[in-house]
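Please check these two lines:
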Amino acid sequence: MSEIFGGNFTQQEPIPEEGIEAAIAVMRHGRLHRYNTVAGEIAEAALLEEEFAEATGARYCLAVASGGYAITTALRAVGVKPGDPVLTNAFTLAPVPGAIASLGAVPVYVGVTEGLVIDLSDLRAKIGKAKVLLLSHMRGHICDMDELMRICGASGVTVIEDCAHTMGAQWHGTYSGRFGTFGCYSTQTYKHMNSGEGGLLISDDTDAMARAIMMSGSYMLFDRHRAAPPPEAFAQIKYETPNISGRMDNLRAAILRPQLRLLTEQCGKWNARYRVVEAGLRDTPGMTLIDRPEEESFVASSFQFLLLDWPADRIRAVVARCAARGVELKWFGASEPVGFTSKYDSWKYAPHPAMPQTDRILAGIMDMRLPLTFSLDDCAQIARIIRAEVSAVWQQQAAES
C-alpha cells in the first residue's frame, strides 16, 4: 500500500514558554505601544532592536509592523521617488515588486538562474537602468554577493536586501542583510522567527536609518531607541520626514526576543531536514536539484527542485499525485496565480518584457515548506513520496513519447 503523509505543512512550532510568559507580562501591564513605558523601563521593542543589531553585527536596527513595511521604508529612506525604476528579481514573491509599485516607482525585472538566484549576467546588462536594486534572496537562495556588490558598486547602484527567507544565513561568513544599505527581514508566521506579522530593518547608514525611524512613527521619541543613530542625526531629518506609522508593538517584540536567542539552533534543525529531503531525492529521474555553493551558509525552511522543460500537464499531475498522498507542493509556473505563488507576468501594474530564459526556469520551479514540526523521519517519508510520484509521471511520459 502506498505511504500517506499525515503532517501539516503550515503548522509551526509553538512560541517558546519564555516568549509566552513575556507576552503575558506585557498584556498584564498593558503597555503594548513601544513608547508607552514607565520610569526605568526599557520597551521590549527597543530591546529586540538592540539584540538583533548585535546578532547581525549591524550598527542600527528598527522593528516594524511587517517585512513589506520594512522594504517600503528602506526604499523611501534611500530616496526612491514616484516614477523611478528599481531593479529587482523576476523570481520573488508579490510583496517585493509590490513595495516598489506602492511608491509609484517601476520594477525592472532581472532574470533567474537554475540555482534560483538573480542572474548576474542579466544584472550587468540592466544595471544602467536604475539607481537602486531591491535584491530578493528568494526562498533562501543567496547569489554570489561579492560579485553582485562589485557590479552595483561600479555603477553607483544602492542595494537593499530582502532577507525574509535568509534570517541567519551567510555568504562567505557575512550575514545576509549586511551587504546592502539596508537589510529587511520578516517575522511573519512562516519565517525564521514567528510573531504572526512583523519586520526588522538593519543598516549602518546613519542618515538613512534616521529617516526610517522617523517614517516608522517615532514622532520626537527617537531617543528611546537603543540601536539608533545619535540624536544629532535627527536634527534636520525630523522636520523633513513624513510619519508613515508602522511600528512593531511590545507584544510581538516580547515573543520574538526568546526566539532570537534560539535562532542558530533552529537554523541547524531546518538544515538537517533539508539535507534529509535532498538525500532522498538525489538522482530522481527528470528532477533537477539545486546546488548550494560552498560560500553559502543557508537556512533552509523550505525546499525547491526543478522539473525543467516538463509539459504543464505533467507538472500538474505530479502536484496532484503528491497531494493525494499528503505532500503539498507549490508550483511557480502556473499560468494563473495560486495562493502565494505568482510570477512577474502576473503583476500587471508593472511592465514586463518577455524573458524567455527566466520563463523556462519559472515554469519548472517546485516549492515545499519544511516546518520544524516535521521530524527527520517525516522528511525521509516526504522524499520517498515525491521521488515515487515524479518517477511515475516521468516514466509515463517516456513511455508515451
